[in-house]
Specification:
292 residues, alpha/beta, Rossmann fold, 3-stranded mixed sheet, 21% strand
């Protein structure tokens, strides 16, 4: 576990609460570094029964901190779930076979093997989801449905990590622009992309790698934070929680330091000064702090 300036501070904060929509046992989740440090909790959703059971087994010794529910989160309606040959590409949206087949190593992992009716649940109707700090979405095109029917839950959320697509890998799926508009409408600000991914159009390959894009970006993970131009809407202790998440989960040192200034102005502490000294000392030569 990588050392952080905030290691001695976390234990004094309210426990972090994470929501994970589209949890899978084979993925290292972005919030895990904080779960290793805190008595926080995870509320996970995974509609594929076998995958959900794997998670429940994996975390059985910590079932009080990790709760996984076999729900498909969406708009609350009856939908069709498209189970694909590659578990991670299964979705409430049908794969756009016509488009994805034009790329190397994409259409072949999005083959529908089963269609089944499923009742979705609205995030706003899950009482355990309220008062959460962080939301991770990986719903293969279903992210906008979740956000639009989880607006009350979002009121407490400080940070969102969501998968986004730039082209319709699934039929009629909302794209990045739609998700961005929804999140900005609900008081969030785009922070950054966490990797840009794609595939090469057939028949070309780059360096013989079918997974390495040549020009086309297809998807990414987008990180959003509460709108920092409206800090007056965020309680003081939650500004500190956001600074902690930015540092430990994303190494967003500059924004974390900026938030600590606002925290200090309200609280009378001098955390920003200590934090900047720490950053410069442990990142000698790579981070330089100008005089403020």
């Amino acid at each position: 576990m990588k050392e952080s300036f905030f290691d001695s501070i976390i234990c004094k904060l309210e426990p972090f609460k994470f929501i994970d929509v589209g949890a899978m046992s084979i993925i290292d989740e972005p919030y895990q570094p904080l779960m290793e440090r805190t008595v926080g909790s995870v509320l996970g959703f995974e509609p594929q029964k076998e995958e959900c059971e794997k998670l429940q087994t994996q975390y059985s010794e910590n079932s009080d901190r990790y709760i996984f529910l076999p729900f498909a989160v969406g708009d609350g309606s009856e939908r069709t779930f498209y189970e694909c040959n590659f578990t991670m590409t299964s979705s409430l949206y049908r794969p756009n076979k016509r488009l994805v087949s034009e790329f190397h190593n994409l259409g072949n992992i999005m083959e529908v093997v089963r269609e089944q009716p499923i009742k979705t649940v609205r995030l706003d109707d899950v009482k355990e989801a309220y008062n959460s700090d962080y939301l991770k979405l990986d719903a293969q095109g279903g992210e906008l449905d979740i956000l639009q029917h989880g607006r009350n839950v979002l009121k407490s959320v400080l940070m969102i990590h969501t998968e986004v697509e730039f082209v319709p890998l699934y039929e009629n799926q909302p794209l990045f622009a739609d998700i961005d508009a929804e999140l900005r409408h609900n008081g969030f600000m785009f922070h950054r992309f966490e990797g840009l991914s794609g595939r090469p159009y057939k028949p070309l390959r780059y360096k013989g790698n079918a997974n390495l894009p040549i020009s086309q970006t297809l998807w990414s993970d987008a990180i959003y934070v509460r709108n920092i131009t409206k800090l007056e809407d965020i309680p003081t202790h939650r500004i500190l929680k956001l600074a902690v998440m930015l540092d430990i989960l994303y190494e967003s040192f500059d924004l974390s330091a900026w938030l600590l200034k606002a925290f200090d102005q309200r609280s009378g502490f001098r955390l920003q000064e200590a934090y900047l000294d720490y950053l410069v000392s442990v990142n000698a030569g790579s981070l330089v702090c100008e005089q403020i």
